[in-house]
Write a structure and sequence with these properties.
The strands form 4 sheets. Strands 3, 4, 5, 8, 9, 10, 11, 12, 13 and 14 form a 10-stranded mixed β-sheet that branches. A 3-stranded antiparallel β-sheet has the order 15-16-17, with helices on one face. The chain has a two-stranded antiparallel ribbon with strand order 1-2. 27% of the residues lie in helices and 20% in strands. Strand 6 and strand 7 form a beta hairpin. The protein contains 12 helices and 17 strands. It is α/β, with parallel strands linked by helices. It folds into 2 domains: 311 residues, Rossmann fold (3-Layer(aba) Sandwich); 137 residues, no CATH class.
């Protein structure tokens, strides 16, 4: 059932009968991001009522995403995780390409990082047409980007056969349509090399004056590429992820002025070899503040894979402290921790649990060393069993995600506080209204195209749950989640 129509304004519009709406093409109300989860959706978008009455979220992977950090802060691993999560959720109606400027990426590495992504398990990434790796060894940066532009133009020209229906609504309350997703990862922008710069390097020995303009010419090529990206991505179903190196800015004067490009950047840090418009044209610009092994007092992994993963000196589990320096659709400057395994990639349950722990164990009940989620009280866990339980129990993992999103709504989305309740109250309210928690915790929390809904388990967002608890019974889909 479609949502109720908005009340008409009483303000007279007669003077504007032939105004600026005449002859212009109206932009869509928003361009939805691809949901990523792992504490990266709520801060980068908002909940929107879909054409079917469900509440969907617009955040996650937006059109242009930048990730900065010093060397060895796992910014590439974070970029890989974003690309692979989106690839997995829309697979096979999606394509992705990893552009390698440092000659370090392999299909085997991406295969390792996809081990916990359900729809990619068992898929050989080196064999499918949906994914490929390219590098500067095969074609230069500007030649590659030219091919990318041509490919996106072909997508637009092909028309209807590449257009799918999202669950969101356009300005006229009709389903919003878009081209299938094309995800491009450039690792890194700092290492991007155009022909014009490569030629200068080839024609001049190291240290020769003729090579002095190489950085200027290469920066100009990158700036031109960045200028094209917003329009190219927005009109082609494109999602661009790029990393960039950061390092100390050396200042010769003791009292040199603050030259930070963005308010939440650290003093004396700057992006290396990126154009100025890199700071302004990214929809989200994440910075990895620090990365360190997450160990217990005996130098073992704080959250091991299982009880056998207890070796001393284990540095596989890493904690990345990140902050969104520039969030065009949400708050900036709020640091939080992402947890990843160097061998298995981003660990969503660990990240979400640590977020709850940092907020006073929100939605978690403690009994000595034993813990339970208030939304899923039948399963006990501790730090030693968290990963093995989460990756073996879909309902537990979904309960953790819902709890973390409730916590994020509490701290970041005051507009929803009127219906916000604690996880314990939510569980009690849903059970009292006859809803089946088994069905709820096996539902999907991210949007997909309407044409492919039947290939997935039913959808149910955290905002849907709050609305269900608040008594919004007019939606027919509610009946699917009632007890039989």
């Amino acid at each position: 059932m479609a949502p109720k129509a908005k009340a008409k304004t009483s303000v007279s519009t007669e003077p504007f009968a032939i105004g600026m709406r005449t002859g212009f093409i109206e932009a869509p109300p928003f361009r939805p991001g691809l949901n990523l989860g792992c504490c990266m959706d709520i801060p980068t978008g908002r909940f929107e009522r879909g054409y079917d009455g469900h509440w969907y979220h617009t955040g996650g992977l937006n059109q242009i995403t930048g990730i900065g950090g010093r060397g060895n802060t796992f910014k590439s691993a974070l970029a890989h995780a974003m690309m692979l999560i989106a690839l997995g959720r829309f697979f096979p109606y999606v394509e992705a390409q990893a552009r390698d400027t440092e000659f370090s990426q392999t299909y085997a590495r991406f295969q390792e990082l996809a081990v916990h992504l359900e729809r990619l398990v068992g898929v050989d990434l080196s064999e499918i047409v949906n994914f490929m790796i390219t590098s500067q060894g095969e074609d230069s940066g500007n030649v590659w980007f030219g091919k990318l532009v041509d490919h996106f133009q072909a997508k637009r020209t092909a028309g209807k056969k590449f257009i799918y229906t999202t669950p969101f609504m356009d300005n006229h309350q009709h389903p919003l349509t878009t081209l299938y997703p094309s995800i491009v990862e450039l690792d890194s922008m700092s290492g991007f090399l155009a022909d014009v710069a490569a030629k200068i390097l080839e024609e001049n020995e190291v240290g020769e004056s003729g090579g002095n303009t190489v950085f200027l010419r290469n920066a100009g090529a990158k700036a031109q590429m960045m200028m094209q990206l917003p329009g190219l991505m927005a009109t082609s179903g494109g999602y661009f992820i790029t990393t960039a190196h950061m390092d100390e800015e050396i200042k010769m004067e003791a009292y040199a002025p603050d030259t930070r490009k963005l308010a939440y950047m650290k003093m004396n840090l700057k992006f290396k070899n990126v154009p100025n418009n890199f700071h302004t044209l990214t929809n989200n610009l994440w910075m990895v503040l620090k990365a360190a092994p997450e160990q217990d007092d005996k130098k073992r992994a704080k959250y091991p894979r299982d009880v056998k993963d207890n070796g001393e000196g284990n540095t596989d589990l890493m904690c990345l402290t990140v902050v969104n320096l520039r969030g065009k659709q949400g708050p900036s400057g709020l640091p939080f921790d992402l947890y990843l395994s160097q061998s298995e990639g981003l660990l969503v349950p660990v990240t979400e649990f640590e977020y709850l722990k940092s907020r006073g164990f929100y939605g978690v009940t403690k009994a000595g060393q034993s813990l339970t989620l208030d939304l899923y009280p039948g399963v006990e866990f501790d730090r030693l069993t968290l990963r093995s339980i989460a990756y073996g129990d879909v309902a537990f993992q979904r309960a953790m995600t819902i709890t973390s999103e409730l916590c994020q709504i509490k701290y970041m989305k005051p507009e929803h506080h009127a219906i916000l309740v604690t996880p314990k109250k939510l569980l009690e309210g849903l059970i009292a209204k006859g809803f089946d928690m088994e069905k709820i915790l096996h539902a999907r929390g991210y949007w997909v195209f309407c044409e492919h809904e039947s290939e997935h388990v039913p959808f149910l967002s955290t905002m849907d749950l709050l609305q269900m608890n608040a008594g919004d019974e007019e939606q027919r889909w509610y009946q699917h989640f009632k007890k039989s």
